[in-house]
Amino acid sequence: MKEADVRDRLREVRDPDLGDDIVSLGLVNDVTVDDGEIRVSLALGAPFAPHESTIADDVRAALSDAALDVSLSASIPDDLSTAEQVLPGVENVIAVASGKGGVGKSTVAVNLAAGLSELGARVGLFDADVYGPNVPRMVAAEERPQTDGETIVPPERYGVKLMSMDFLTGEDDPVIWRGPMVHKIITQLVEDVEWGELDYLVMDLPPGTGDTQLTILQTLPLTGAVIVTTPQEVALDDAVKGLRMFGKHDTNVLGIAENMAGFRCPDCDGFHEIFGSGGGKALATDHELPFLGGIPLDPAVRTGGDDGAPVVLGEGDTADAFRVLVENVANNAGVVRRREASAKE
After folding, report:
1. What gap in Å lies between CA 98 and CA 204, rounded to an integer?
2. Which of 71, 144, 294, 325 gets the most CB atoms within 10 Å of its CB?
3. Domain of 30?
């Protein structure tokens, strides 16, 4: 079998999101046939995203009767991997944001990071909420970062490398950051933390649209952002402000996550829409954005946050809802990266 024959077979493989075959889309970086082996390099940029795993499986199936070993690799060409310039080794940076506090943004960020790690990805979690850094508590991180005076080695929890503004302050110290200080400390942490090789770096931003968000948008090449809201109209109004902020900086929004989307009473089994119904999904529809899923109002989420045990790692309806959100975020990150790769063809 020759290279041209392999490419012909790969035209049978369609991208489930971009709507064409992977050869026409320019998602086949290279094909080599020698020594009884077919080696195919694919422009896939979201490791362990279900849709990208499907593409890889379809490639293997298309070549299954070739009577040759098939070896696949995945990478986005270097000129597209802008994260490499700022965060060497980090493939995707995903910001988790909200227009207002109290909507469970940090809970979503923690469960997103833990869920990606559970899929098998190499993950970091950067708690950049300068005014309320709660991530260490939410993952029961007792170990502090180590440093040799020049670089900072983050601790790990649930397979996730952690960095938090909380590590930089004493217990119960008031946190008072002014704009220039925020810019300096965020920049320093980006440059000095040894993240190593990561598939995903999840950034938990503070609520609102202030200095920290601006610094991160100006400093880091984000793959995209996740906007967290509740169904409540007040939260939705503020979420729109977040959307506009990312829009002004040409940052992809991977979708809308609706937290506290109803409560099922364990005693009467009744379902109560305490904060309203369907607001997050309607927001996504109105702005032509993906709806990442709804997370129910569940006491287990609060318990998991207080005890440092992310719900996504457990069992039950709420864990399943978080896993759906995790897969949707990974899939949409993959869409962004493959669309970029295709556009360069």
Report:
1. 10
2. 325
3. 3-78
DSSP 28: E
Give residues with Cβ within 8 angstroms of 229, minimum separation 6: 98, 99, 103, 235, 236, 238, 239, 256, 257, 258, 259, 279, 280, 283
Smallest CA-to-CA distance from 129 within 155, 92, 168 is with: 168
State pTM to two decimals: 0.89
Q: Do 319 and 313 touch, CB atoms closer than 8 A?
A: yes
Length of the chain measured in residues = 345
CATH number, position 57: 3.30.300.130
Judgement on whether residues 56 and 103 belong to the same structural domain of the protein = no
The domain spanning residue 247 has which CATH number?
A: 3.40.50.300
> Rounded to whole angstroms, how far apart are CA atoms 112 and 139?
12
Residue type, 45: G
